[in-house]
Amino acid sequence: MGERNRLTVEYILEKKRKQQKITMLTAYDYPVASIIDKAGIDIILVGDSLANVVLGLELTREIGMGEMLHHAKAVNRAVEHALLVGDMPYGSYHKGRQNAVKNAQRFIKEAGCNAIKIEWFAKCLDVAQSIVAAGIPVMGHVGLTPQTADRFGGMKVHGKDAKSAKKIIQYAKGLEQAGCFSIVLECIPDRIAQIITEELTIPTIGIGAGVHCDGQVLVSYDLLGLFDRFHPKFAKEYVDLKYVIFKAVSRYREDVLEERFPTREHSFTIKEEEIKKLKG
Fold first, then answer.
1. Is the pLDDT of residue 96 over 80?
2. How many CB atoms lie within 10 A of CB 245?
3. Number of domains, the chain
4. What is residue 228's predicted lDDT score, i.e. its pLDDT?
5. Does the pLDDT at position 193 exceed 50?
6. Do 89 and 49 share a structural domain?
7. What is the pLDDT at residue 280?
8. Which of 70, 95, 105, 145 has the greatest number of CB atoms lying within 10 Å of its CB?
9. Active centre residues (catalytic)
10. Would residue 132 count as lying in a domain?
């Protein structure tokens, strides 16, 4: 595997202090994680968006610890430099602090992650404090929380009025006080994200939260054009790999049908005398 020299939580905190932007992407498998890591991304998140973009499920809460740990292990084998964060799936941190700590430890001990992420819920602060107390760095997540989005009106922007915006600000401050080292701000107005970013001493990582966050995160399959079930407004497609892959597969099919593949270049040979011996 070679020697690893991964970025640390302190490095991420220092980037905020130096007003340097933080980059973060999701990864779910070895080859893509390896590319993302080599490109110099600061944080790689094994996101529960795995449910949607890789497994074809409708809701992120349809997967559990088994699937998340399986994919986190694969990503861990590839990542040499980025801080690796495991996304705690729905139900893995909602059933009491002891259970939450146990599951968080599995991401660290079994999957090789450096930190975990949890979405806001009613007892989030207690859970965050307990996991931090167990020596595990925690990334919080407020605003749109996909694991419970259907209970709060679906996948929509949060904090568009003063009352709801105030709650999100309070949640973010609470997570900082609970010991989180960073917070994802998802689908909130850019001005609200700016307020949170200016008032917190820990980094904010935006996704659909505007340019004023300390860093940005995207689902890698959105960036690469590999997922077309829906296209979030906040996502930017940098390349259409769907088309690239489709064209490659189509060329392969045509080559096989027309006997242009495999050629001698792709084949193995045997000496003629061995064929004669075989037939004799």
1. yes
2. 12
3. 2
4. 87
5. yes
6. yes
7. 83
8. 145
9. 186
10. yes
